[in-house]
Amino acid sequence: MIEQFCFGRGLPDNASANLIDIYKKWRDADIIAELDKNRSDLIMVYQNITHDFNKASAIRSGNAFNIKESYIVGARKMDKRGCVGSHRYVRTFHADTFDEVFQALKANGYTIYAVDNILSYNPQNILDCDFPKKSAFVMGEEQKGLDEDTIRKCDGMVFIEQFGSVRSMNVACAASCIMFEYSRRFR
Questions:
Q1: Segments making up each domain of the chain, as ranges
Q2: Is domain 3-186 classified as CATH 3.40.1280.10?
Q3: pLDDT > 70 fraction of the chain, expressed in percent and rounded
C-alpha cells in the first residue's frame, strides 16, 4: 500500500525550515498551495536506499526543482534532518514494493526510466534521451543498484555520463542531475 509520509507532526509551521525570504512568514499550507501552481510533472522513485541522508538530500533537491512527487520504496524509516525542512513541501510517499508504484505511475500515463549504467541494458545518455514531460526516474541503492525485476518493468534506462574513475555517483547527486536536466527541458 502506498502511503504519504507525514513529517513534522506537532511542529509549528516553518520551524527551522530552510526557506527563501518570501515564504518565511507564510503558513506551510500556503507555501504548498503556491508551489502547486508551478510544480513539474517529474516523479522520482528511490528504491532500497540504505542511507537516510541520501534519501533526505534527494527529497531536498526535489523541493529545489519543485517536482510533483517522490516515492521511497523499501524501508520506511527515515531520518529527515538532511531535508532541512524542505520535506514539508514535496509530496513524498512510501511503498513496500516497486510494483505498487509501477502500477500507479502507469495508470497515470507515466514513462518510467531506470537510472543506471549497466551496459548490457544499452542505457541512453540522459542528455540524448527524448523523455516525455510525464517521466518518472527510478534510482537504486548505490552499491547494489536496481534489481532485475525493476529494470525489466521500466520503459528504458538512462545514465549520467561521468569522466572519472568511479562506477557511480552518490544517489542524491545523481537525482539532482536528473532533476536539473528535466527542468532545463521543461521549465
A1: 3-186
A2: yes
A3: 87
